[in-house]
Amino acid sequence: MTSFKYYVGASIDGFIADSTGDVSWLEAFNHEAGVRQSYEEFFAGVGALVFGGETYLWLVKKLASDGEPWPYGDKPVWVFTHHELPSTEGADLTFVRGDVALWARDIAQSAGTKDVWIVGGAQLAGKFLESAVLDELHLVTVPVVLGDGINLFTSGNRSRFEFINRIDRDGQVSEVRYRLAR
To answer: Does a structural domain hold residue 166?
Structure first.
């Protein structure tokens, strides 16, 4: 059965980006022991991805400036936006707007037998949480304190998660999986 999973990196004080939206402090840990392996294991189970418009646009600009190709192959990508955004060569994109609950079935079907990765950002993840569509949180925590920035979720909804497991890897980065308590 397809699950909706929010796989995200964060500081130890719960921020996914600094107050300017910068994530270079997080990217500095991409080569830490176990981080690549964790990502590859997670990504192997992903059949479709969901982006918010701002996160998608940030990625498109970063790929263009770095001269890199689309990193998600031919997996379907859904982008929630209220703006006209550029398409990307090699990407299977569907631009949508509206309530995430209205699109959840179509998104799940596009994933086939695999899971849906809610890539972000925090507003989009919060909407999936509020709509009770989010099934799991995979939280990769790096040893940085930001003090302020963009929270893991931007949601006024109080939600409770249940611990699934902790994946211990060599290095400074930890990964914990949680299931949304229903």
So the answer is: no
